Protein: ATP-binding protein
Organism: Streptomyces kebangsaanensis
Amino acid sequence: MSSSDLLLPDKPQRVFDREAEWQALAAFACDSRPEARLGVVSGRLRQGKTYLLGALTGALGGFYFGAQQGTETESLSHLADELARYRNTSPPPHWHGWEDAVDDLLALGDRRPTPIVIDEFPDLVRQSPSLPSVLHSAYRRHDGGRPGRARLLLSGSSMPLMHRLFSTASPLRELSDLHLAVRPLDHRRAARFWGIDDLGLALLVHAVVGGTPAYRRDYVGDDAPAGREDFDAWVSRSVLNPGKPLFREAYHLLQEEIDHKDRALCHSALSAVASGCSTQGQVADCLGAPLTDTARCLGLLREHGLLHSEADAFRPGLIRLRVAEPLLAFEHAAVRPYRSALEQQDPVAVWKHARPVFDSLVVRPHFAQICRDWVLHLADPDVFGARPGSVAHGTLADPAHPGGADVAAEVVVRGHGTARDGTLLSVGLARWDEVMDLHHLERLRGVLDLLARRGEDVTRTRPACYSGAGFSPALRDAEARGQVVLAGLDRLYGRT
């Protein structure tokens, strides 16, 4: 029976958005095939995995267990207690090890499809390294798979361990029918989640907290800025307030993800990247650290999903770094230099000093990233003549400039292919706080001329301007003549 033939439960109203995720989970949980199935749910901390999985088990009468760090004996005892409460039996089962526990869990699906969630599964594997093998044996004990309709969902936030447990080479990979990643809300959904209609304000808030759902409800107590004029006051009272959980969240993220011995260097590396160091060599120079130590630190941050690395659009051998989590970029660029002052002074006074840094080092690159995300995931393919295959920042050394200064384009769009040979669909400039005019278009034409002289085919390349402040009438006229693609906040947020 296909998922389209199943009668699936409606998503609870308390779960915001996540339509595709709910559909995938519900279809997996309601699958009526007479074999036990295995699914995997992954995603960084605070993205709502637990909330979503709790809603699923609540809607379908399933079983949920949230693992914690501890010993194997303690975890088995807690699981036995939870299972006894779920089955309304007493006393709890006495297990000799994970083999017994897994058998009892899978037996919950003997009569009907039943979702069984083990949340933060990596915490159990750290205690019991043999647990993945136990699960594999339980599923493979019978030819053709274990009978029953247990729908076991293993969830985790430790991205490196989740990747190792369910990589192509892992024995659990072949057993799993569902691989679901719960990602942060994009900028459009985040604006709706925060209830913000002013698009400029929505982007400013997104530059601080990104699309992490937990930060609104649990970390600032549902406090959202009332308008653009309230943004600075909101940052002072909710983000920089030592009495609010968000105040130390950036440090907690690294504390939960990175081992203590690497944490200090990782904080410094994030500060370097957030402040404009975009290559490994630049970060090493900024830190005064050996390149080997810097490379190991950056690799660790990438492995945990806290740092992204992408090839430059015009120089594929040049790998550019950017902080993946907006709150970490906000913290390490705009707040960290003022941490000691925040412990002693009024946040309003401190934020007045930090705000210009926020505008230049945080909001401007964040706006450019929003533009790249829009192109790749939300823009109609007709905008650039074909579906984009990659979108990246690009730099060129212009020999006409003294010293060979770089010419940058923040939004370079290529069709499907490699960063070197994908069709060049568009070259664009992103300006958060500038009303863009014809001189921006002329600059783009200069970039295209330079690319053509270097042998790049620019016959299908469309100049594009992205602005958070708007466009001049002359540039709008150029758009009407098909000479340039314009994308302002209305377009980026789907209001036009």
